[in-house]
Design a protein that fits this description.
Shape: globular
Strand content: over 45%
Keywords: Signal
CATH architecture: Beta Barrel
Organism: Tenacibaculum holothuriorum
Largest sheet: 8 strands, antiparallel, barrel
Strand order of the largest sheet: 1-2-3-4-5-6-7-8
Helix content: 10-25%
InterPro entries: DUF2147
Radius of gyration: 17 Å
Order of helices and strands: HEEEEEEEE
Number of domains: 1
Protein name: Signal peptide protein
């Protein structure tokens, strides 16, 4: 009985702690329709946050490449591509990295911050954070 209780407590603690992290899979939704257009996995490498596209909803875009990219991702498949690179934790947000918009091939400075356990604020900008765009990713269930 003790083992069962301890196991349940550990499982509950793990689930609660995991829900309070930026890491995991997130749904990016089309701003006009609200439908999920891709799933992005945020992961940690060498103490920094990165994210890659792991699912694309539109079957016609499964093999799409970043033809507008100007860096080493030019003409690389978007599915599996890192779009968020090198963010460092700074209090309750992650910043100091970059985000790629693969549809436009543009790279922006960015920061991300949890807004509740299932919503992630992603802000891309040029120069100062005041001049940019915010999107919200929703935790994949």
């Amino acid at each position: 009985m003790k083992k069962t209780i301890v196991t349940l407590m550990l499982l509950t603690t793990t689930v609660v702690m995991n829900a309070q992290t930026i890491f995991g899979k997130w749904e990016n939704r089309d701003e006009d329709t609200g439908k999920v257009d891709s799933v992005i996995e945020v992961y940690e490498k060498d103490g920094k946050a990165y994210a890659k596209i792991v699912e694309i909803s539109n079957k016609d875009r499964q093999n799409a490449v970043c033809d507008k990219c100007t860096d080493d991702r030019k003409d690389q498949k978007i599915l599996g591509m890192d779009i968020l690179t090198g963010l460092s934790k700074d209090d309750d947000e992650w910043s100091g990295g970059e985000i790629l918009d693969p549809k436009k091939g543009k790279i922006y400075s960015c920061f991300i911050k949890l807004k509740g356990k299932d919503k992630l604020k992603v802000r891309g900008y040029i120069g100062a954070a005041l001049f940019g765009r915010t999107v919200y990713w929703h935790r994949k269930k």
